[in-house]
Amino acid sequence: IARELDDPVLLVHCLAACIGTAAFNAEAARPYIAEAIDLARALGDGWRLSQILGWQAYVAILAGDPIEARAAGEEGRILADAAGDRFMSRMCRYWGTGTTRHMQGDLMGAIEHHREMVAEADADGDAVHAFLGRIGLGHVLAAVGQTAEAYAVAEAAVESAPELSPYLEAYAYAPLAVAALADGDLATAEKASDIAWQRMGMQPEH
Questions:
Q1: Could you tell me if 53 and 36 are in contact, meaning their C-beta atoms sit under 8 angstroms apart?
Q2: pLDDT tens digits along 124-155
């Protein structure tokens, strides 16, 4: 309909929504991303472009490409900060900086990043990025052997997940399983992994 109306502003909004719904399938999402980026740049809409770049970083992480994710996230963060959109700035930083540091082996940098994000999100009442930050932090802490803190942040994520969405619980149980495995607690690791698998099965595209 937006194309038929020849309304580029409406079209870029629609494309951004299409990216979000297609995000778990990078092949499906990328054409929307490419078109939306070109259109937002042509419109000079930096705020909308920051959202699209945030989604691009997210899709790139799911596709296993931290280089693309970092480039998109860093540009998106600059634009979001300029627009005063702290939520979108955190999205760009989480997927474009924190997660890429973890994927590329900068574990201490990732820990510092996620701790800062959790503190900032808690202060701003941003439940989404407080949740995501704890998930990322739990995974990296377990990787460096700081299992007690990994348990604590993963359990906090598990507790907050139902307030956001039951579908998100799987992502909180994952670092709990990793922390338990790193600590040699196989029973807890198996239980948490089973719950994560069950929750993930509620939406197979995940």
A1: no
A2: 999 999 999 999 999 999 999 999 999 999 99
pLDDT at 204 over 90: no
Q: What pLDDT, in 10s, does the model give residues 175-201? A: 999 999 999 999 999 999 999 888 888
Tokens found for residue 21: 């719904």
HEC profile for the chain?
CHHHHCCHHHHHHHHHHHHHHHCCCHHHHHHHHHHHHHHHHHHCCHHHHHHHHHHHHHHHHHCCCHHHHHHHHHHHHHHHHHHCCHHHHHHHHHHHHHHHHHHCCCHHHHHHHHHHHHHHHHHHCCHHHHHHHHHHHHHHHHHCCCHHHHHHHHHHHHHHHHHHCHHHHHHHHHHHHHHHHHCCCHHHHHHHHHHHHHHHCCCCCC
pLDDT of residue 206: 67
Alpha-carbon torsion, ordered 97, 98, 103, 104, to 10 deg: 60
Q: Which residue has the tokens 């629609």?
A: 14
Token representation of residue 151: 């348990």
Indicate whether this model's pTM tops 0.70. yes
CA 126 – CA 80 distance, rounded (Å)? 15
How many angstroms from the chain centroid is the CA of residue 134? 11
